[in-house]
Design a protein that fits this description.
The chain is an alpha/beta fold and about 280 residues long. It has 8 helices and 12 strands. A hairpin with a 2-residue loop joins β4 and β5.
């Protein structure tokens, strides 16, 4: 069963009087439970695709279906971005600058879907410094919304069950002894473990990870990827992982790899993924 389907996805950015096409007619699906990677060199479009998949960036055309939900159904994507203008100082005078935004109703809807359907692991961790490990992981559950699209299975948990769930995740990522420590008291590898648990806390079916080893040394990278692989196969979680990466060692661990070049798919590869993050095969 496909948990993610992208169909004829396209992203165009204005650059002066010209348009730059960053993603060109991309289509692929990711099945539930896959350990998948969007891979390619810098400038290939992998981060752009991950941002659209994460509902952070709006496609110029195409469709995205997440867990059976057609995100942009009945939305005219070519008209979804509306132009606003603002005046900003530019040295001696004033210069008119343009910015884009999307209609408020659509923005609230996709924000809700982002909370209920997706978890994010950032390469810079993005933890809240004043909160401890437990509180950082708990934080997404404290964000209340009347938006039905934002509803998570964990929202119906009792207070005691939520505490049990958070403590379960803390144990799974190996931080039980650190749960009362603030983010500033943790190593880079420990911070990434907190970020993983935070991404899982809403029981979102898909976890997106943008270059998760970029700020880690090789030993911490090995531990983090091994942890993700274990979580991927955990029957309690049943989580699909999708990476944006050019790290060949992550690619080797994945059972599904979408290879990109210049905004297009060059290969949609299914294979047996390794359980070990380490040396890559040498030609």
């Amino acid at each position: 069963m496909a948990v993610i389907t992208l169909s004829h996805l396209r992203k165009t950015y204005p650059l002066g009087k010209q348009d730059v096409v960053a993603v060109k007619d991309v289509s692929f699906s990711v099945e539930k439970g896959e350990f998948a990677a969007i891979s390619g060199p810098s400038g290939s479009g992998k981060s752009t695709i991950l941002n659209m998949l994460g509902l952070i960036d709006l496609p110029s055309a195409g469709s995205i279906t997440i867990n059976g939900i057609d995100v942009y159904k009945d939305v005219n994507l070519s008209k979804a971005e509306v132009e606003n203008t603002r005046w900003a100082s530019s040295g001696e005078g004033k210069k008119k600058k343009r910015r884009t935004s999307i209609p408020s109703k659509l923005d609230k809807y996709i924000t809700g879907l982002r909370r209920s359907q997706l978890g994010f692991i950032f390469q810079t961790f993005n933890l809240i410094p004043v909160l401890n490990v437990y509180e950082n992981i708990e934080f997404p559950l404290l964000i209340k919304s009347n938006n039905k699209a934002a509803k998570s299975p964990v929202d119906d948990f009792s207070k005691a069950k939520k505490e049990e769930w958070i403590n379960y995740l803390i144990e799974k990522v190996g931080l039980s002894e650190w749960k009362n420590h603030k983010a500033t008291e943790l190593s880079g590898g420990q911070r990434q473990r907190v970020a993983i648990a935070r991404a899982l806390v809403t029981k979102a079916p898909v976890i997106l990870a943008d270059e998760p080893t970029a700020n880690l040394d090789s030993e911490n990278s090995r531990q983090i990827l091994s942890l993700m692989k274990q979580l991927n196969t955990d029957p309690e979680l049943q989580t699909t992982f999708i990476f944006s990466t050019h790290d060949a060692r992550i690619v080797k661990m994945c059972d599904h790899v979408i290879h990109l070049l210049d905004g297009q798919i060059t290969e949609d590869e299914h294979k047996a993924g390794s359980d070990v993050y380490g040396e890559v095969d040498k030609a």
